[in-house]
Specification:
The chain has two domains: 5-59, Orthogonal Bundle (GTP Cyclohydrolase I, Chain A, domain 1); 67-201, GTP Cyclohydrolase I, domain 2. Helix content is 35%, strand content 27%. The chain has helices spanning 25-35, 48-59, 67-72, 121-130, 136-151, 165-168, 187-190, 192-201; strands spanning 5-7, 13-15, 75-77, 84-95, 101-111, 115-117, 133-134, 155-164, 179-186. Helix 1 packs across helix 2.
């Protein structure tokens, strides 16, 4: 396996030695548990460091994926030049400032320029960039720029609406706060009517 965690059965995770000879994520997590006043050896926490490493590697698995390979395998030539919208894509990511989750919905639209991409690839692209340490603004831009580069459409629009646990659980502790970010490229930036059509289709209020 590429990571340092090997599953031996459904209930047990065993730590493999670090190939580089350095400290593994699980070993570091044991130290963290001790630093906050916990006993890493008590029954409920004994396997937590390995589980944490396994979960963290999954939640950051987007670093090992290539957006061009993801999209280029599902491109189709079509005579269609109307807006394609994939909305309400569930999105989960980790804030790079506090390593706490932020989650919500992502809406993606593009206007084809003789090419479309398989609809399932759009949520996969969102997942790929979400499974990295992120800030919402950069995540929104990366999704839009990858579609623009790989599909070369007439325009791309991306809107993300998300709640951040770093705001809800700590900091200002505002339970209902939601951050909204957008990236508009090509026709979506240049044409107000196109942009408003997209925002109307996803049910986003705009002036």
């Amino acid at each position: 396996m590429s990571d340092k965690i090997k599953r031996t059965d459904e209930l047990e995770l065993v730590e493999e030695p670090s190939e580089e000879g350095g400290q593994s994520i699980a070993e570091a997590m044991r130290q963290v548990l001790a630093e906050i006043g916990e006993n890493p050896q008590r029954e409920g926490l004994r396997r937590t460091p390995e589980r944490f490493e396994h979960a963290l590697r999954f939640l950051t698995s987007g670093y090992g994926q290539d957006p061009e390979k993801l999209l280029n395998g599902a491109m189709f030539n079509v005579c269609y030049d109307q807006m394609v919208v994939v909305k309400d894509i569930e999105m989960f990511s980790l804030c790079e400032h506090h390593i706490l989750p932020f989650f919500g919905r992502c809406h993606v639209a593009y206007i084809p320029n003789k090419k479309v991409v398989g609809l399932s690839k759009i949520p996969r692209l969102v997942n790929m960039f979400s499974r990295r340490l992120q800030i919402q603004e950069r995540l929104t831009a990366q999704i839009a720029e990858a579609i623009q580069k790989c599909i070369d459409p007439l325009g791309v629009g991306v809107v993300i609406e998300a709640r951040h646990l770093c705001m809800i659980m700590r900091g200002v502790q505002k339970q209902r706060s939601e951050a909204v970010t957008s990236a508009m490229l090509g026709a979506f930036r240049e044409n107000l009517q196109t942009r408003e059509e997209f925002l109307s289709l996803i049910g986003h209020r705009h002036s």
